[in-house]
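Recap quiz, item 2
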Amino acid sequence: MTTDIESQTVDLLVATVEDDKKNVTYRWLSRSMGYSVNTAKQLMESYLSTSGKGKVHGTYYIMRRDPKTQHQVVSLVSQERLSEIKQDPTVVGYHIYSLEPSQLKDIAILSAANLDATRLQQGKDINIYRTVQNKHVVVSKSNNRPTGSVATSGTASTLAGKPTPAAKQPAATSPAPAAVASTPSVTTPPAAGTNSKTKSTAKPSMLGFFGKPSTAAPKPVAATPTLSTTTAPSAQSSKLNFKRKAESISQTKVNDRAEEDSDEAVDSEEERDRRLAMSSRLDQDQGDVVGSGRNDKGSLKKRQRSSRILVTDDDDDDDDDVAEAEDDESVETMSKEARIALNKEKEAQRLALENMMLMDDNHAVEVEDEDSKMIDIEEVESDKQTSAGHASVAATTTNGDSVPRRRRGHRAVTKQRTTRNARGYMVTEDYVEMESFSEDEVEPVKMPVAAPAAPAPLAKPLAEPAAGSAGTGPKKKAGGKGNQSLLNFFKKA
Amino acid sequence: METETASMDRRQATFDNLGSLQEDFHVRARDYKLQYAHLYFMRLMLMRPNVLRHAQLKWGSLESRPKHVEKVLDVQQGEISYLVGTVYMEMKMKPNILNDITKDHWITAQPDRPKYTDDDDSVYLEDESGRVKLTGTKISKELFVTGVIMGVLGSEDVGGDFKVVDYCYTLPPEQEPLHHMETDEADKYVALVSGLGIGSNDFKPLELDLLTEYLTGELGGNKEQTDCANIVRVIFAGNSLITPDVIEDDTKAKKYGYDRSKFVTEPTAIFDGFLRDVCSSVPVDIMPGDCDPSSVTMPQQPIHQALLPSAREYSTFQSVTNPYWSSIDNVTLLGTSGQTIDDIFRYVKTDDRLEMAISSLRWGHMAPTAPDTLWCYPFKDKDPFIMSRLPHIYFIGNQDKFATELVIGEDERRTRVVMLPPFSTSGTIALVNLRTLECNSVTFSTASDEQK
């Protein structure tokens, strides 16, 4: 080895042992300097016999072999006994193990130096330090080998085969989380709904864990397979649903038509990741995102777009571009009284929603699913209805018309804003603002007694609400919680 | 002392999992509705033919022409005959569930006895039909445990007891012949360690470090490192992790059930780091022991990989069952973490554990006391503890001291029996030569009496 390394080593040893008064083992030295342990031992020995003599104390490893039984004993001895060790015939090997500022009372503390060594070696190729090398060791992050399987070491081919399936696994795992997210998503929104009032910030994070937008996405997947075949407006409205589904707690009626650019080229997996990342961001400042929905429309759009993509692959959203322009509408068209009435209605509906959520646990999941779905629709439709009632809705609520036409107008949307008030508390408040909407109205919906095309009704949810339910809003509430939801369900048929 | 920096490669050995033998120990579907009678029945059915054949070989040509009596109850008085059946030990001190139930509720449970032996224990032979008590001088000298399939030669006496003249066990099972070609290469070794005891009070971190350095070949001079390169496999036979004793904090409110906040994660982390170091150099098998996080019933299932996140990334890491069959370079190994022998220890008066291990070899069954006093899964159609093959190396972990013996059977059958002491208390591991079946021990000592 070069004297350069030698001098570096000596400097390090002097600094560590003499100055810092720390113990140094050969392992630690080899990890610090990056050479093999044998080099470390040699350098330590030379240091001890030359410049370190008297200033530091060395501990030696010795191995004894009993000539009769061939049993070996490894032990650590202090340098004072070195001379007798050298003469002992049973000693078959020794070398320096560690250097200390002074003789140790308890050599067990040398393990601390070894711990340091382990820490230093992380991330580096262990074969730098070792003389005995094993080329057949394969390290793989997802080395899921079943225990007790037949393995023949020494055949590099089998081991080489392992990294490739391992490599495939990461790819496989990313669709998995989405799939995983979808199954719990169906149950979490209802669960989330129960805590809506109380833990509005906590619950979203739980949802967010499964990926809020992904809860939006799989919901349509799970619930309405025919969604994919619906036309654009239904797609939009369904999205509105799911958006609401995911944020049913927060009651955000974010304009999720905002995302209607048909940019199908987004990679769904990447989107999913982005979504998840964004949803976690959402968790933290859930209200903020909503409150500053306007500012953050872009990300929301993307999110919703991707969720939409998951759901409705073959949807063409040609009106989407049109709708996008009408995003930023003000609520000014609504009169104050209208707004108050609107709010009251919304309150009542929210109460109903909660009641529904708190229903029997047994069939909570399925029922609540429907309920929540229903509630979304209901809310939406009541929105539509209120907006139809209050705002200047250009849409003609046609009951018998089957000509698809575009309904435009303003409607009131309740949004949430989370702010810190003067006393430093976070306050979440609802506010209503008007937004414009533009949807196609498809089939009219009478009182649907037959619920056969349950997906179908969902497909055209928002078109109807105003159409069929102008007067049924209040009726629904009066009809009792369970009936309310059931009726909703049938109405869409 | 020369220390060169030339590198050398670790020797490799072919490893075979012994398919079905090892697979038998994996309990997939756990169905506890079964009775243990199935296990006993299967044991008898599977082992009886061998025992019978042995009995016929041994006694068939005697002058008195003893007959084989099919059913225990059919034994005729005065006639010399031989029977085959399961041994049952009637012991007063043996934990008996019925006694526990019939006793009064407020009598405290009896403390665990180290041994169940008593002076008036009796030995019975049992088969599907019934039981018969065995008497005779031969019985009192030999050690018996419940669950061994045995053949006895003798006759029934007036009292209805069977007076035993001679007994035999199963024929020794087949063993893979060891043919080693004469090579110039050095011998390969397998290292056997047991009872690391990380987390226990005896645990010495520096000794663990020395063990790591020894197994990875960092310790020692050129010669020792060359020797180390010959170690082709390391097997940890149980009790690597021990839950540390938590000092009860009486000031805190008593919580019933499991208090998760008291869980100490350091032992697992230390074990994981240790394994990572060792696995980066040599193939490792981890067997669970009675203190490890694994199932309570035998056969213990492998320690789950989730507990060892960094070790499991290595292809050299394998978590296996207890007991454990394996084959390295065509050398068959069978090992347990010690519960089997510990249980046998309780049945017999002697303290010689090596003797018990050798007896279990002779009985052809590694855990005869299961399910009587050794907790075991109720198998329905197999008994995985039967030694259907004779191993070359039979090791038992967590015994009192290091002991080894080469048992030579007929037809050149050789088995090296190794009793491993716990590393945490003794610092000893065993190295077995795969070619010659020689066994050495290596002790790591950091005792302070070495220092002046």
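DSSP finds 22 helices and seven strands in chain A.
The beta strands of chain A are 24-25, 57-65, 72-78, 91-100, 132-133, 405-420, 426-441.
End of item.
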